[in-house]
Request: fold
Amino acid sequence: MSVDDAITQLIQTGRTEEAFERLVPAYRRRVFGLAYSVLRDRGAAEDVAQEVFVKLWQALPRYDGRAQLSTWIYAITRNTAISAVRRRRRLVSMSDPAVFEEVASRGAVSGAMADEAALWRCVEALPDRQRQAVILYYQEDRPVEEIAAMMGLPVNTVKTHLHRARANLALALGGAGEEVA
Reply:
């Protein structure tokens, strides 16, 4: 039995406290990762993750199982993170490429790590929905249908975001092609 199935079964039998105790460690990193992919600020992502778990605690007794548990949690996380972006629109990203360049210039980063870091810097520069789709698809290994449910978009729109993101990443990393909006 998967962790999600076990948690869902606990919820259905009214053992929400025990379900929540299992849910938090199972989803802590994923909730933070999704929040960070939207906010691009560690402190803000931690605040959103905490807010998400409060919301989950309050909503857990009402979870009806119509959507997969992970889809339901991701939708709550995405909506909470987007609300935080709206509240904090005037803030800029805290990521500083100059710090990475300094570390790389001192030889502290190997070639493979530098390539991976360059890739993730390019991912961070993608438009929000493309970035979210890429992170959910490649980093979280989510199927397109589940990403569509998480992002509240049609499946073909998610496929389009992934296609455009790949084209933009190829261009940014020195490949051929034109930038795709």
Q: What stands out?
A: The radius of gyration is 18 Å. Confidence is low (pLDDT under 50) at residues 90-96, 106-110. The longest helix spans residues 16-39. The chain has two domains: 3-87, 97-172.
